[in-house]
Specification:
Two copies of one chain form a homodimer. The first copy, chain A, is of the alpha+beta class. Chain A has two domains: 79 residues, Glutaredoxin, CATH 3.40.30.10; 116 residues, Glutathione S-transferase Yfyf (Class Pi), Chain A, domain 2 (Up-down Bundle), CATH 1.20.1050.10. The first copy, chain A, is 50% helix and 6% strand. Chain A contains nine helices and four strands. A four-stranded mixed β-sheet of chain A has the order 2-1-3-4, with helices on one face. In chain A, a hairpin with a 5-residue loop joins strand 3 and strand 4. Chain A starts with a strand and ends in a 14-residue tail after the last helix. The mean pLDDT of chain A is 97. The interface between A and B is large, with 48 and 48 residues. Chains A, B: Keywords: Isomerase. Chains A, B: Belongs to the GST superfamily. Zeta family. Chains A, B: One of its GO terms (cellular component) is cytoplasm. Chains A, B: One of its GO terms (molecular function) is glutathione transferase activity.
């Protein structure tokens, strides 16, 4: 198995965590986001969308999109599971993950920030306001879900780390890169602390990867 | 079952199609996006994220996020299936759906367009350029996938409509509202035509819903 990714990519981080929780070995193939290697022909031949990550499984099939890759890993390597067994629980965990995947993270990615600065002319203050506008409501919604749903425990769904925790942790890190702290979100903070207590999460942190700087 | 939604919401459209493909009856509860009813207390008590759609299932549990809701429907009502059986196929179908759910649609939603016009001051030409920048690459990537993957058939995955078709059709409609046509994407165009040949898709179209105008 080959994971095409980059230390800075939070979608790659999610797949790293899932692979480690399941103790699956994958060879890391670094695609350099910063020099825009993902936009080149070589990577497009692997993933025509040109986004990270992509996972090449052992028969050579290339999977793309972090959510789809992690659902695949959970189906192909079911132990330990990343989704609960009961159907409504699965929907809630997937729903929490999608709040990050669909409503928060896509507004913060480099191509959006680049367009805001290069094409629209926002300065760094304007970009920070943009990030706050779209990163924080996801935390606010998830904090309420965690406070009001009986399934909230050490992790998003009782006491086992899973899909929602992986996506939530990726957003904690990503928003953190832009100065969004967790003080207003005590439940999320506790869950994130539980996550980083696990080697699968801590060793997957973007700044712990080869090629990463000491801080951003 | 109660589906909270709005005629204009493309995420609600996706769930309408899935319900109809599976012949599941759900009572529609209209939440008026245009008067911002989704931002009010009454709807927040149902879905704390304040986004559409939400699906209240028969035991009173409220599910949120269109992808999570449709995965639930596929697990709870497996016939006809919206995902293939083989694991790599499931990952590819989910991946195509996520291209729309995570990389294209979130950049076109009202709260983003409102921020671009009200806070940043873009005019309608600037908004159209923004839409083109973020709506079209999803079509471009999916068109290449459809051209190069053996599973491309009458629909995204062979000859059965499923999860990827639902998300793709929602984006065809959504991008169409902003004047993005399908001429550069002949495979997508053929699949969309196959979709609208099905009553589940045609009767779910935003402009066919109660309260919708004749055109946008």
């Amino acid at each position: 198995m080959h994971l095409y990714g980059h230390w800075r990519s939070l979608a790659t981080y999610r797949v790293r965590v899932a692979l480690k929780l399941k103790a699956i070995d994958a060879k890391i193939v670094a695609i350099d986001l910063l020099s825009k290697e993902h936009l080149g022909e070589r990577y497009h031949a692997i993933n025509p969308q040109g986004l990270l990550p992509a996972l090449e499984i052992d028969d050579g099939t290339v999977l793309f999109q972090s959510m789809a890759i992690i659902e695949y890993l959970d189906e192909a390597f079911p132990d330990p599971p990343l989704l609960p067994i009961d159907l409504a629980g699965r929907a809630k965990v997937r729903g929490l993950a999608q709040i990050i995947a669909a409503d928060a993270h896509p507004l913060m990615v480099p191509r959006v920030r680049d367009y805001l600065t290069e094409n629209i002319g926002l300065d760094s203050y304007g970009v920070k306001k943009w990030i706050d506008r779209f990163a924080l409501p996801a935390f606010e919604a998830i904090e309420i879900f965690l406070r009001t749903q009986e399934h909230s425990g050490k992790y998003c769904y009782f006491d086992t780390p899973g899909l929602a925790d992986i996506f939530l942790a990726s957003h904690v890190i990503g928003a953190g890169f832009f100065g969004c702290g967790l003080d207003p979100f005590p439940r999320i903070q506790k869950i994130y602390e539980a996550c980083v207590g696990l080697e699968a999460f801590s060793s997957s942190h973007p700044l712990s990867q080869a090629g990463a700087p000491a801080h951003i």
